Amino acid sequence: MASFLKKLIDGIRYDANFVKEHTLQSAWYKVFKIFLILGILVVYWLLFGFTRTILFFVVFEALSLGIHMTYRYKTNGFTSSWLDFVVNCENGELKYKRIGGFYYTSVIFSACIAFGVSQR
Q1: Among 16, 105, 94, which residue's Cα sits nearest to residue 86?
Q2: Burial class (CB in 10 A: 0-12, 13-18, 19+), 50
Q3: How far from chain centre, in Å, is Cα 116?
Q4: Distances (CA, A) of 35 to 5, 25, 52, 88, 116
Q5: pLDDT tens digits, 19-70
Q6: Considering the entire predicted model, what is its pTM?
Q7: What SS3 class is residue 119?
């Protein structure tokens, strides 16, 4: 059990460092999307109530985690290219191009699924 917990904590640290340092999205967008998500949740709460908002959030976050883990697995820990995730090695350093349409389409599709589940 301790080994599993250590692996989990190490994985979270690895992902947190990657998210903090990557250049797939501009720095302003990384900050803006936090406020965007909070704003969407507040509006959702006002329109549909607390329970549906929590359900929307949980489903959306679970699907987003699935997207994240798929990209992490398919890119070998964000070190190789896959679909719209493009990695180049320049002077021995990994450089990332902006993420593309497949990722954003997946996020929008996840939000639509979360909306549908929360409205049932």
Answers
A1: 94
A2: exposed
A3: 20
A4: 31, 15, 20, 31, 23
A5: 888 888 888 988 999 999 999 999 999 999 999 999 999 999 999 999 999 9
A6: 0.91
A7: coil
- CA triple 63-66-67, angle to 5 deg: 90
| Residues 83 and 74: beta-carbon distance below 8 Å | yes
Amino acid at 95: K
Angle formed at CA 40 by CA 38 and CA 44, multiple of 5 degrees? 115
In this structure, what token pair is assigned to residue 82? Answer: 């896959």
**Tens digits of residue pLDDT in 69-106:** 999 999 999 999 999 999 998 898 899 988 889 999 99
